[in-house]
Amino acid sequence: MKSTSTFLKMKKEREPIAMMTAYDAPSAKAAAKAGMDIILVGDSVGMVVHGYDSTIPVTLDDMVLHSKAVRRGAPDTFVVTDLPFLTFNGDFGTTLSAVKKLMQQTGTNGVKLEGGGRTLSVIKRLTEAGVPVMGHLGLTPQSVGVLGGYKVQGKTEESANRLVEEAKIIEENGAFALVLECVPRQLAAHISSLLNIPVIGIGAGAETDGQVLVFHDAIGFSDGFSPKFVKQYANIQNDIEVALTDYVNEVKQLTFPGTEHTFTMDENTLEKLYG
Ligand code: KIV
Ligand code: NA
């Protein structure tokens, strides 16, 4: 299995890191087969799987359930799990027990925490406790209420400077990687060159040390809005709708099931039973 030192080495050798979310065993298995370097069990699961309109309702138990499924599907891939909304912002004991539960019960390899500010010291304490931590700056969806919507971050001088300072502290505090979401590509390039740890971008341009996308976005498994930074590598939603429509039609027209889908009894038994 790859490790945090693999990712540092990949950055040094300029080998881009490919990361994607997965939330269940079959998608994790597909990601592993594709050669994904890191699987993220993102709290985006709340939006793309559970149908919430933000990540706020996602619970620790949700993350435990999905992380277990991902671990079973991809036993040899480095997996990171998001700490969900308000599980790491209060007393450190609560944070520790959340992380303990996740790591011991699911076998995930590390956790991701959103934000700068007070999250910075939590990152430090967790890494000191032996937990591999990934930071997450820029657009941090758990703070959507404070940010006032899903908007590009770091566009002003003040916010760009703050992001650079927080990124540096995240590295100093022991994180093994940093996700930068929805920031101008020039700022992402600058932060990537400043840090020794890999910077993994989403909506952050091509000059980061790796990329991450949400599984459902990447395979076109949604009929909703798709942000500018998403590239759809397939249109699974359409394929599914076509398949399900075919199924409904065949059931109605009695063309499914065919004989090849059907079990039969041998003639002797049939004779004895029904004459
Ligand atoms: O939850 C998620 O999918 C994420 C990625 C977008 C980085 O945090
Ligand atoms: Na997330």
TrEMBL record:
It catalyses: (6R)-5,10-methylene-5,6,7,8-tetrahydrofolate + 3-methyl-2-oxobutanoate + H2O = 2-dehydropantoate + (6S)-5,6,7,8-tetrahydrofolate. Keywords: Cytoplasm, Magnesium, Metal-binding, Methyltransferase, Pantothenate biosynthesis, Transferase. Its EC number is 2.1.2.11. Binds 1 Mg(2+) ion per subunit. Its cofactor is Mg(2+). 3-methyl-2-oxobutanoate binds at D43, S44, D82, K112. Pathway: Cofactor biosynthesis; (R)-pantothenate biosynthesis; (R)-pantoate from 3-methyl-2-oxobutanoate: step 1/2. The keyword Methyltransferase applies. InterPro entries: Pantoate_hydroxy_MeTrfase, Pyrv/PenolPyrv_kinase-like_dom, Pyrv_kinase-like_dom_sf. GO terms for cellular component: cytoplasm. Catalyzes the reversible reaction in which hydroxymethyl group from 5,10-methylenetetrahydrofolate is transferred onto alpha-ketoisovalerate to form ketopantoate. HAMAP family: PanB. This is 3-methyl-2-oxobutanoate hydroxymethyltransferase. It comes from Alteribacillus bidgolensis.
